[in-house]
Write a structure and sequence with these properties.
alpha+beta; 4 helices; 5 strands; 39% helix
């Protein structure tokens, strides 16, 4: 266990190693191993305000929900090991999900539709998945 005195000695030794330029850096400058890289790193962007969330029932709210449903269904289909080898596309419109593409066999096609049905936010799910 290090004593506070030895820890202070380590900090002071580290401070002596740093170049003088790094010790006097201003917030608008960056240093990498003692070399000035001013402008190499962008400053932190200001917080972006996207405004209030969309009003439920509006076109923006429906599009936002469709985007979440599309992401969820796509993630469920692509991460399921049972669907390896299947090439399935997903389209979501007003909560209705259409899956299309090719599956290895009928069982895999039916399974893909079942996975899509099990995703929260998916309304009516239609499967147009052909078999190889």
């Amino acid at each position: 266990m290090k004593t506070p005195t030895s820890l202070l000695a380590l900090v002071l030794a580290g401070a002596a190693i740093l170049p003088a330029a790094a010790q006097t850096a201003t917030p608008s400058q960056s240093y990498s191993l003692g070399t000035s890289t001013q402008g190499a790193f962008p400053s932190r962007p200001e917080r972006v305000d996207f405004g209030p969330p969309p009003v439920p029932g509006t076109q923006a709210a429906v599009a936002s929900q469709d985007a979440r449903t599309l992401a969820a269904v796509t993630a469920a289909l692509t991460t399921d090991p049972t669907l390896n080898g299947a090439e399935i596309d997903v389209v979501v419109s007003n909560g209705n999900v259409v899956i299309s593409g090719t599956a290895m066999n009928e069982a895999q096609a039916a399974y893909a539709k079942g996975v899509a049905v099990g995703v929260a936010g998916a309304g009516n799910v239609e499967g147009v998945v052909a078999t190889q």
